[in-house]
Amino acid sequence: MNRVPRRRFGRLDLQGGVVGLGTVKWGRNLKLHYAPFELPSDATLGRLLNSAEELGINVLDTAPAYGVAEERLGRLLADRRGRFVVVTKVGEEFEGGESRYDFGAEPVRLSVERSLKRLRLECLDLVLLHCPPDDLAAILGSPALETLSRLKEKGWLRYFGVSSMTLEGGLKAVQLSDAVMVSWNYLYRDQEEVIHAAGREGKAVLLKKALLSGKLSSGRASDGSTILEACVASALDKGDVSALIAGTLNPEHLLENAAAAIKWEEKRRRDQGRHSPSRNAEDGTSPRLEAESG
Ligand SMILES: NC(=O)c1ccc[n+]([C@@H]2O[C@H](COP(=O)([O-])OP(=O)(O)OC[C@H]3O[C@@H](n4cnc5c(N)ncnc54)[C@H](OP(=O)(O)O)[C@@H]3O)[C@@H](O)[C@H]2O)c1
């Protein structure tokens, strides 16, 4: 079976499939912008994880604010040790249907310690600040990044970064950390400069909202590809993107997301064969989408 292409995360000593798997729906079904759904069973998630691995989808994005997602992931990863890149977060807690934020040194340290226990890992691959809308307050006005840097030195985590909310926050994250998770899709490009800045600095870039949070219309792009394929292609055309994180509980959607990345890679190889070797991944090989023409 074909697998999704892999990319190195910037200049970090980390690599993974260009489509990752988000786990918010593994552990929480309240106050999300998705259609209502039931939390899946561990058996269902085990099958999803097996399919993901077969497809080369090996980057898992989770967070303490995703309800019981970390604990469930810990149980499921116990006999899949070392086969996935695990990204988690600090700073946001979701309790009683509400989010609260704390980026103090001790809460951040305790959160990382708890994630290690819940995920049953000795070291976390990447830990991100789970920022509120005012991300600069967490990035510049708290000891959180400094604390994560110390925990990196202690070997509790390999890399740290920021799941940012604003352009300014994203650019600061690129300066001060190893990685940034940024909202980007063909309809929302306001923070594109963060992706380019991260590329210049060799930092990892994860995309959130890359599949329009599931609000994919049934229309077609200019070359006949589906909107999903066009979303994936437009994201992967950005050579500075390490992986787009797509959340799904649906095995058919998982397969479609992988197939879209594989199709993108096949087209890229064909185009490379046709054009000069200097043509790079960002020359615009993705199909034209309505928002780009307007
Ligand atoms: N602040 C943060 O750090 C932050 C914020 C948002 C998201 N995230 C991360 O990013 C992940 C993705 O969340 P997102 O909001 O950015 O959403 P997204 O990946 O743009 O979309 C996820 C939604 O799309 C649907 N979907 C996935 N593949 C599909 C397909 N092939 N066809 C149709 N629908 C499809 C899923 O529903 P089905 O289950 O039905 O497939 C899910 O409801 C989250 O799980 C989380 O890990 C992080």
In CATH, the topology is named TIM Barrel
Q: What ranges have pLDDT less than 50 throughout 5 or more consecutive residues?
A: 290-294
Give every kind of bound small molecule, once each: NADP nicotinamide-adenine-dinucleotide phosphate
Biggest β-sheet description: 8 strands, parallel, barrel
CATH superfamily: NADP-dependent oxidoreductase domain
Structure summary, number of beta strands: 12
The pLDDT mean sits at: 93
Sketch the topology as an H/E string, one letter per element: EEEHHEHEEEHEHHEHEHEHEHH
Range of helix content = 25-40%
- Counting DSSP H or I runs of 4 or more residues, the number of helices is 11
| CATH class term | Alpha Beta
Architecture overview:
- This protein starts with 5 loop residues before the first strand and ends with a helix.
- Residues 290-294 have low confidence and may be disordered.
- The strands form 3 sheets. The protein has an 8-stranded parallel barrel with strand order 3-4-5-8-9-10-11-12, surrounded by 6 helices. A two-stranded antiparallel sheet has the order 1-2. The protein has a two-stranded antiparallel ribbon with strand order 6-7.
- It is 39% helix and 19% strand.
- Helix 4 crosses helix 6, helix 7 packs parallel to helix 8 (192-201) and helix 9 (227-236) crosses helix 10 (251-274).
- The chain is built from 11 helices and 12 strands.
- It has one domain (8-293): NADP-dependent oxidoreductase domain (TIM Barrel, Alpha-Beta Barrel), CATH 3.20.20.100.
- The protein is α/β, with parallel strands linked by helices and 294 residues long.
- The chain has helices at 24-27, 42-55, 69-77, 105-119, 135-140, 144-153, 167-176, 192-201, 227-236, 251-274, 290-293; strands at residues 6-8, 15-17, 19-22, 59-61, 85-90, 92-95, 98-101, 124-130, 157-163, 179-183, 204-208, 243-247.
- NADP nicotinamide-adenine-dinucleotide phosphate binds at residues 22-25, 34, 61, 130, 163, 181, 208-214, 216, 228, 245-250, 253, 256-257.
